[in-house]
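DM from R.C. (forwarded with permission)

"hey, sorry to bug you on a friday — could you get me a structure for this? deadline for the figure draft is monday and I only need the backbone to look sensible"
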Amino acid sequence: MGVQRFLLPDVGEGLTEAEILTWHVKVGDAVKVNDVIVEIETAKASVELPCPFEGTVTALLVPEGKVVPVGTAIIEVDVAGMADAAPASPATTPSAPPTPTTPAAPVSAPAASSAGTTPAAVAEPAGVREAVLVGYGVAGSSTKRRAKVAPRRAGTARAAGVATQVFSTGAQVIARCKPPVRALAKQHGVDLRMVQPSGRHGDITRDDVMRAASGVQSAAPAATPAFVPTIVGTPRERIPVRGVVRSMAQAMMQSVSTAPHVTCWLEVDVTASTSLIAKLRQDSAFEGSRVTLLTLAALAVVKACAEHPRLNSAWVEGPEGAEIVVHGHVGLGIAVAGGKGLVVPVVAEAETLSAPSLASALTGLVERARSGSTAPAEMLGGTVTITNIGALGMDGGTPILVPGQAGILALGRTVRKPWVVKDESGERVDVRDIATLALSFDHRIMDGEAGSKALKSVADFLSSPTV
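My reply, with the result:
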């Protein structure tokens, strides 16, 4: 008999920890390969993990409700006849972190979800092929798994190609630094482990590297005491900030501290859109999809990205300086208030989809997000986002950009209003369906004229939609 330990995998791109939500097994239960044993919550979604072993559960090593780092042993299984076999779980001895490289251009969600998530190298017995395990992938009969890449911090702006990472080397930790800074350090032969960071977020800056190269180290920045609010009365509730909620909070802080936000808004007569929606709901091509103004707004944003490419771009700091990179595809994010917090699932390559296909994709994304079953891969590769605050009864708002993106559209509710209508006979006041659109954009990438034109493109489509 041999006891195998299952280590918590990275089930998404660069996740560092997860909370044990619900155990689906107990000590003494018999399990088979790919039986669901536990549900976990990461910074991106809730995920059910399958068992990589067949045997009897001997210990649950982490209780429900506890947050543990990726790589932590969470369960022990007594595997009959496997005492001398190579363990199916990842090797427990971590490999040295690889030399970090500048991130590649944004990739589609499926490719991104598998990059950098395989565990340490483990030789596979000849003729054996392991079952698929979320976050691990499948190894062939004569291959070895690659060394696990150092985990990326939650909230990293992957789509923008700007990765701020923490690397551990033995007992020493390298502070966070951007790829251009690492390249500069390599050019000047500076050991980043010996550099004192002075960046506003505790990161190593170009000036820190140049001071280290000249032999002059900067003094450590004075720590700013954290503001602690006064609690009035006996607290009614204390809510731990973790998982999806913490990921959202970190992303919002990163967004407002790195991108200069500008918001412009516009009231639009969407009476024609309302009429078209009623027709599409009767169209067999849209059967099974929930057709709303969000559906037409998604089509409008995809069209606007083609007409105004900077709406679908990112600000990237490179070795030679900053540049604006226009994405090759539209990763259309939809902000959804799920049961466990705000998530932004993505329709990959939205510009390639027909109207019925886009409607179907949006319906599936929203349903999974509200039920908390969004796969981590579905939240990768976003390039531009829509938030439908009209579904919450709001007329408008000033949305915050998803880190690394250039634009986010807030779609307000549709209300009946008196409106001046112009036609061949002149002007008249009529009651029309009116919606408010608000576009927030990165002012480094788009100036006021570019942002206004992009919003006007969306408004023009919704006032006279064509599908």
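R.C.: lifesaver. The chain has eight helices and 19 strands.
me: no worries. The two ends are 63 Å apart (CA to CA).
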